[in-house]
């Protein structure tokens, strides 16, 4: 019999807020974390706005000397991870270290370090490239640092599936506990790709919004006038725990992880399957894995990136899975407020979905002004909606054709 898995801790770093309750308050108020980019000079760039975390600090989390040896994406993971562990109230010194682990997702990893050291190489020669280059840029650095911080010696690895990374990581952590490989897992995703190469690369492939006149309105999932996503950064980290383990220590439980589904489009390296078949498969597999019927899901936090092709394909996929019931669902994309955190997005969106269960309210899709005939579902436009939220689904789809869906619900 598979073991039950619950969520006991949450931590975030986002451009809107890096405190859970403050972030949730601002999400429900319809605020945006998108602004003129402050991380670097955008002179000559096609896009000059993003969701960069311009006020980020590791003070109180990581010693200053150590911070210099850790890339920004790992710093994000450490700060959000420490907050998640503190929120959970777990004392890892009282846990079996071999049954506690870390699985994190990141789509790109240490891009800041790659760019910085490439400049040093060209300007000063190979002997001046930092000795910390490799341990800073490697994608598994974030999970490694968290395991070291808390002395966790169980399952530990990184998942790389572009924008599906965090959700795939959570799925792997879910299964590790289900199948008795661990009792506690720190999981989610982290990303710090708001860099000159990150911004110009996405802009030159015409993936980003060009709405320079009003950056806060640039991310508009499912709206007829959407023109691309907004690049963002940050982390969403959660503590997954076996139910009886959590109950034995009197943990606060946000919800239960119920099901997980994955698939591949196998059609194009960047474009989604226009018929949504891969996305539909991931969603239907998650429903089946949870032992539910489609009608048992109340809310979907959509991948909803604000791209013309992606939002249409996801809408088609939701209709394929939920059929007529799709019109009775509440759907929203919190990327309308936070932008697209790439490999970290699924972690943040799972957190917001669990808060929707806690407070029985659906966060909105802001900037929804002009209905699109191809996207005709209830995307919770512009204002939150109070309703019974028993179970949620969170979708994440990534370049490469990677599709992942995860379902959580109230603890029964």
Structural summary, described in words:
With 412 residues, the chain is an alpha/beta fold. Helix content is 33%, strand content 18%. It contains 13 helices and 14 strands. The protein has helices spanning 20-28, 64-67, 72-88, 111-124, 133-137, 141-150, 165-178, 196-204, 243-248, 277-289, 308-322, 335-338, 345-359, and strands at 5-13, 35-36, 49-50, 100-105, 156-159, 184-191, 234-242, 255-264, 299-301, 330-332, 361-362, 385-386, 391-398, 402-409. The strands form three sheets. The chain has a ten-stranded mixed beta sheet, sandwiched between helices. It starts with a strand and ends with a strand.
The run of helices and strands is EHEEHHEHHHEHEHEHEHEHEHHEEEE
Shape: globular
Binned, the helix content reads: 25-40%
What gap, in angstroms, lies between the N and C termini?
17 Å
DSSP strand content: 15-25%
Structural class: alpha/beta
Largest sheet, strands/sense/barrel: 10 strands, mixed
Order of strands in the sheet with the most strands? 5-4-6-7-1-8-14-13-9-10
Radius of gyration: 20 Å
- As residue ranges, the low-confidence spans are none
- Average pLDDT, all residues: 98
Number of helices: 13
- Total number of beta strands: 14
């Amino acid at each position: 019999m598979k073991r039950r898995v619950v969520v006991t801790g949450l931590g975030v770093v986002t451009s809107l807020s890096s405190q859970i309750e403050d972030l949730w308050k601002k999400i429900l108020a319809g605020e945006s974390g998108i602004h003129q980019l402050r991380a670097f000079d955008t002179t000559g760039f096609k896009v000059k706005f993003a969701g960069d975390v311009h006020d980020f600090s590791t003070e109180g989390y990581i010693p200053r000397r150590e911070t210099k040896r850790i890339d920004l994406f790992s710093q994000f993971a450490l700060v959000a991870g420490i907050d998640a562990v503190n929120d959970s109230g777990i004392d890892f010194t009282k846990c079996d270290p071999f049954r506690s682990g870390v699985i994190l997702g990141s789509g790109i990893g240490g891009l800041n370090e790659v760019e910085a050291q490439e400049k040093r190489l060209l300007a000063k020669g190979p002997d001046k490239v930092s000795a910390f280059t490799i341990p800073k840029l490697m994608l598994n650095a974030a999970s490694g640092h968290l395991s070291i911080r808390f002395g966790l010696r169980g399952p530990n690895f990184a998942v790389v599936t572009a924008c599906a990374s965090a959700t795939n990581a959570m799925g792997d952590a879910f299964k590790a506990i289900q199948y008795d490989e661990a009792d506690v897992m720190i999981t989610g995703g982290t990303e710090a790709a708001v860099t000159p190469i990150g911004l110009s690369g996405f802009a030159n492939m015409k993936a980003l919004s060009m709405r320079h006149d009003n950056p806060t309105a640039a991310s508009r999932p499912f709206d007829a006038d959407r023109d691309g996503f907004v690049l963002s950064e940050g982390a969403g980290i959660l503590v997954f725990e076996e139910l009886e383990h959590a109950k034995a220590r009197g943990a606060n439980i946000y919800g239960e992880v119920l099901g997980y589904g994955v698939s591949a489009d196998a059609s194009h390296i960047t474009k989604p399957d226009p018929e949504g078949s891969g996305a539909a498969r991931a969603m239907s597999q998650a429903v089946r894995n949870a032992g539910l019927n489609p009608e048992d899901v109340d809310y979907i936090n959509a991948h909803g990136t604000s791209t013309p092709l992606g939002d249409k394909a996801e809408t088609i996929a939701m209709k394929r899975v939920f059929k007529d019931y799709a019109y009775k669902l509440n759907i929203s994309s919190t990327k309308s407020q936070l932008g697209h955190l790439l490999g970290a997005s699924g972690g943040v969106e799972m957190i917001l979905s669990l808060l929707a269960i806690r407070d029985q309210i659906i966060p909105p899709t802001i900037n929804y002004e002009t209905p699109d005939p191809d996207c005709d579902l209830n995307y919770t436009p512009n204002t939150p909606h109070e309703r019974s939220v028993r179970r949620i689904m969170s979708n994440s789809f990534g370049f490469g054709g990677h599709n992942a869906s995860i379902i959580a619900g109230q603890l029964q």
